[in-house]
Amino acid sequence: MSVFNDEQYLRRSIESILGQTYRDFEFIIIDDASSDGSSEIIRESASKDRRIVVMKNPVNLGLALSLNMALNIAKGEFVARMDADDIAVENRFEVQLEFLNKNPMIDLLGSSVYLIDSNDKIIARSDAVADPGILKRIIHYRNVCAHPTWMFRKEVLKDIKEYRALPASQDYDFQMRLYSLGHEISNVGIPLLYYRMHKRKISFDRSISQIKLSRYLRRLYKRGLLLRDEYFGKEQILKVIDTHRAVRQIHSMSLSIFEKGRFLMKNNSLIRGAALLCVSALLSPYMAYFIYCGMRAKLLERKQNKSAVKGPYGEEN
Asked: Where are the domains of the chain?
């Protein structure tokens, strides 16, 4: 877990890991130079449970470098990810470990999630695709596993090494490189995480930088160039995400319209909602691309064989 100024939700998140039904693990927390009350919450938690291992960055290094620090000291056979504002279901580790032990061909495993608001209220359920074959096609359009639901075999780091120090899409790049190296990814069908939806998270997911960098990764992946480090120099990445201020402002307006359209569609106002999505796409080519990728991924999700025999955790047999 990497933590940066997450005091509002941090204690609940830590408690959800310490309360897991599977108890034999080390809990590595990287305090990425937090300036709020996060550091005190981490110290207090660590004083009560010896499983917690704490590292504190003298300056803010960002998510990728902080996660790499944790990977470098991790001792276990498996590595699980967790975000500081989410809540793990109490048997998450138990379920994922059982699945990975029974399915040695799967190297990284995610799960479905419950979406929750700032008050821990469930607002929706997001079901993950389990079929590894379909996931290999969906990766061309979006992430195939929610990052904080990951559990993966540490041995894959022999191939993939670590997270790339990108300003966004680090998890997307990680998954694509796994596929490029011949590894397999899957999900369990039941929700194992309460994934918090708040304005900061939503805005970042649909920011121009995130969309442009994701598009760049897809192009490299399609051309078989994703493993070549010369495409990931600092100047090269800054050039990829560089966007004129006026374009960013228009995109921000487009994003606001998009959110209103999504809200209307979820509340059965389909025509008005769809009209706003069209306006959003017309305003910003980046939102148009984001919407297009989402639609393509949804179409592929529907191809998951509904008649397949399901395992105990929603996976297909």
From this structure: 2-205, 208-301
- pLDDT tens-digit readout, 121-180: 999 999 999 999 999 999 999 999 999 999 999 999 999 999 999 999 999 999 999 999
- Whether 317 shows a pLDDT value over 50: the answer reads no
Q: Distance (Å, rounded) from C-alpha 46 to C-alpha 196?
A: 24
Cβ proximity of 279 and 259 under 8 Å: no
Question: Which residue, 79, 103, 83, is CA-closest to 93?
Answer: 79
Return the number of other C-beta atoms located less than 10 Å from residue 113's C-beta. Answer: 24
Find how far residue 78's CA is from the centre of its chain: 18
Give the pLDDT score at 282: 97
Residue whose C-alpha is closest to residue 216's, from 172, 256, 182, 249:
172
% of the chain with per-residue pLDDT over 90: 88
Q: Is 222 exposed, middle or buried (0-12, 13-18, 19+ CB in 10 A)?
A: exposed
Which fold would CATH assign to domain 2-205? Spore Coat Polysaccharide Biosynthesis Protein SpsA; Chain A (3.90.550)
For residues 180 and 227, the answer to whether their CB atoms sit within 8 Å is yes
CB atoms within 10 A of CB 147: 19
Torsion sign, CA atoms 253, 256, 258, 260: negative
Integer Cα distance of 6 and 29 in angstroms: 12
27-31/52-56 β-pairing: parallel
Q: Buried (b) or exposed (e) across 51-87, using 16+ Cβ within 10 A?
A: ebeeeebeeebbbbbbbbbbeeebeeebbbbbbbbbb
Q: Say if residue 27's pLDDT is above 80.
A: yes
Asked whether the beta carbons of 6 and 35 are under 8 A apart, the reply is no
